[in-house]
Amino acid sequence: MTNNKLTTSWGAPVGDNQNSMTAGSRGPTLIQDVHLLEKLAHFNRERVPERVVHAKGTGAHGYFEVTNDLSKYTKADFLSGKGKRTPMFIRFSTVAGENGSADTVRDPRGFAVKFYSEEGNYDIVGNNTPIFFIRDAIKFPDFIHTQKRHPQTHLKNPNAVWDFWSLSPESLHQVTYLMGDRGIPATLRHMNGYGSHTFKWVNEEGEGVWVKYHFKSEQGVKNITNEVAARIAGENPDYHTEDLFNSIEKGDFPVWKLYVQIMPLEDAETYRFDPFDVTKVWSHKDYPLVEAGRMVLDRNPENYFAEVEQATFSPGTLVPGIEVSPDKMLQGRIFAYSDAHRYRVGANHNALPVNRPKNEVKNYQRDGQMRFDSNGGSSVYYEPNSAGGPAESPVDKQTAFPVSGLAESTAYDHDDHYTQAGDLFRLMDKEEQDRLINTIAGAMGAVESDEIKLRQIGHFFKADPEYGRRVAERLGLPIPQEVK
C-alpha cells in the first residue's frame, strides 16, 4: 500500500483531521493541538490582499511566435528570428471592480502579457484600449478613488466619476472610447490589446526607434450592449472567465497577431501630438502597423491562485533591446506596479513559479518574507567583490537620451484634448453614435450636480458640436454659453 499520509506543512503525519484535541469530550480545546493552530492560522492567511486595481481577472499560458523578423529595430531576443517561439502567460482583468464583481461591466480590460525570454522576463502591461484617462501618474490614485466605493455609503459614486472626468479634460478621448461599443467586449477572446504607452526599441548597433504595441484578435472584435451585459452579469457574473477557460479546454485556442507602430526618434520632436502622451494615439496613416508575431493561448492554469492571483506584471520588467519613454504615466507605473507586488505578494514575488524567469537569476538580493529557495547559499553577498561573483555587463546598459529644462512640476506642452476625441466620434456610424449618447446619458443621469453635467457637456461640445448637443438634449440641459 502506498504511503499517502496527510501531513502538516513541516511534513509530520497528521493523526486526526476530524477532531480537535480537548480536555475531555466537552473541552475546552488545548493550545497544544499544533495541527489545529496551523490549520486555522493558514486559513486566515489564504487570501493575499486583492489588487487595488485589476482585482477581477483570469489568465492562460501560451506561446509567442515571431512571424516577421524585426531585429533591425530591436535586439530583444524573443523578437529575433522568424519562427522563434517564446513561452508566455497572460492575465485579463477588469479595472475598477472587486474580485467578486461581474465580468461584463463597462470598464477597460487589463491585457498583461509576460514573455519568458532567454534574457529574462518581459512584461507588456496594457489594456484593451490604446489610450488612458490620464497622462500623469500623480493623478492616478485620485482617479482610481473615483472608480471605487464612497467611504460612507460604500456604493459606487457617479458624482465622483463625472466630477473628476469633467475637471480632467484629458480623459475625454478614453471616455468616448469606453462609452462606445467597445466598452463591453463580448468575450476576452474577441477584443484587441494594446501596450498603450510608447516604448523605445534599440538594436545591436545602439540605434533606437519609438514603438507602440497592438495585439489584434484573430477571432475578430465583438461587443455586447448594455442590456445584454446586464443580463449576463445577473445570470453568470463569471461569463468571460468561463468562456476563456472552456475555449482553451476544448482546443479552440485564442490567437492574437502582434503589430507595432514604429516612429523614428527624431519625429517625436515635430509630431503634431506628443507621442509620449498616453491619452493620444498615433495615426496609422503616419505610422502603419508592422507585423511582429502571433500569440497563441493553449493551456489553462492548473491552480488559479498559484498562477493567476500570484502572477505579477510591471511595465518596468524589461529586457535588453526594450527601454522606456518619457511618458509620465509610464514613468510612474514603473515604480507603482512592482511596489504593489512587493506589498501584496512579497519582496520575493519574482521567485514564484509563474513569475520566475526561465534563465538563471544571479544577484545579491537576500532574505525577505517567503524566501523559499537557497537564498544565495554561502555565496558572496555583496558587489563589487573579489570572489568572482556576477558582475555588470556594460553592453547591456540602457541607451542615453538627452534631457533639458528646469526641475519643476510641469504639465505636458500640448493641451489639445478634443481633436482625437472628436475624430473618434466622427468615425462612428449613426447607430454607434446613438448607442454612445444613450450610454453617456444613462451614466450621467445619476449625477446629482448640474454643474458637473454642464462642465462635461462642454467637453463633448468642444470635441464635436453634435456630440455635445445630443448629450445635452438627452439630459435636458442647455449647451454652456462659454463653449458655443
Automatic annotation (TrEMBL):
Amino acid composition bias (Polar residues), ranges on this chain: 1-23
A Pfam family the protein falls into: Catalase
Gene3D superfamilies (alphabetical): Catalase core domain
Binding site for heme: Y337
Spans annotated as Disordered: 1-27, 373-396
Any one GO CC term of the record: cytoplasm
Cofactor: heme
SUPFAM superfamilies membership: Heme-dependent catalase-like
EC number(s) recorded for this UniProt protein: 1.11.1.6
Enzyme class per UniProt: oxidoreductase
Catalysed reaction, written as an equation: 2 H2O2 = O2 + 2 H2O
Residues at the active site: H54, N127
Sample GO molecular function, one term: catalase activity
Domain Catalase core: start-end pairs: 7-391
InterPro entries: Catalase (IPR018028), Catalase_3 (IPR040333), Catalase_AS (IPR024708), Catalase_clade1/3 (IPR024711), Catalase_core (IPR011614), Catalase_haem_BS (IPR002226), Catalase_immune_responsive (IPR010582), Catalase_sf (IPR020835)
GO biological process: hydrogen peroxide catabolic process; response to hydrogen peroxide
Keywords tagged on the record: Heme, Hydrogen peroxide, Iron, Metal-binding, Oxidoreductase, Peroxidase
The family this protein is said to belong to: Belongs to the catalase family.
PANTHER family: CATALASE
Protein name, UniProt field: Catalase
